[in-house]
Request: fold
Amino acid sequence: MGDKAQRDRACSLPNARGIFPALPTLIEEQTRLIREGLFAEALAAHEAGLGADPEDPAALHHRAWLLAALKRFDDAADAARRALALGGEPHYARRLAACLRSGGDPEGAASAEAEAEEIEARRREGFAFEQTELKARLSQRIGELIALVTTRTPYFGDEGSARDARLDHAEMLFGAHPVDSIVGWADAVPEPRPAGSIATVAGVGRFHITNPLHVLQKRLARGVAWELPIAALLAELAVRCSSDTLIVDVGANIGAHAICAASHHRGRLIALEPTPDTYGHLLQNIALNDVPNLDPRNVACSSAPGAGRMEDLDPLNPAAATLRLDPEGPIPITTLDEITSGDDRPVALLKMDVEGHEASVLAGASQTLAHGPVVICELPGLGPQPAREVLESLGYEGQHFFRSDWIFLPPGT
Reply:
């Protein structure tokens, strides 16, 4: 490797900010030294500050790289060996293998490579076990919630009690996708498809990929369902919804859940997405899928009609933006009651993902809630939960599903 390539590669290796987030100045100084090829000075800076903790495997791993750059291969191997003993990471074993190979010990290098492969194999086994256990618990919980829903509302369970006992769609989705709350999920799936491509997500739909770094698209680009537990629950609820009912998805984003639910529902699904760019992406994804019953609207929902704007908009996670009321704002605001007023069919299922605006959406949905739809939304783990207070004041019963996701069941009929 040439000197410039070696320096450029060094700056992308363990000297990244993530390892020593509290020491940005030292990191920048060390990066400058490495880029200038001053490895001895970089090592001195590392030892003076970044590598002060001799028991930090990340610091030892970095020290091994710097020592190897100085061709001190025995010292580098010692540092890498200690990093591996403390940290147990496969890339620590591969660093040790590189140091040993460069130091003229091919047998030791082969042994270290084999250890890296063993670590990865054990992790794959552990990952598979964790996935199996979690999916079993999720399937059980979905079954419990379906049983509660079908006894609380007349809108579900059309297909007969035998069908109601099965979870065909959830099991298919769990068989096809990892749950991304378990570390290592990205290692178990293909590399992401590039921007400009179309990703097929089994059991969910097809999606245009505009940016594979986008929080939601980084899953879809790998063919992985977004928020798999919610997708599985929605599929099982949607397939049981009567054809003469509505499903409403408030904050539909690019359609990762709306398209899946619409493909299982025999009635109409209304998807509301306020952000113009995201709404355009939603329309593109709807066109890719056979969901003529999906009715998209480029509006926001709140307690009263008006206008507003989306604030704190992150290009990589536009769903985290918050709605601010502003009479001069570019985004039209309506209410759920206005959205559903022209349709005689009741709302059977209401899903909300509106970043803390849930109570305001519910305040504009008194007529909609009077029909007793099932409500799915996120609740913060700490602090006030106004949406929960509103629903419970109407006789709804909250049931925790997964992480911050809750399902609210209407008063029994």
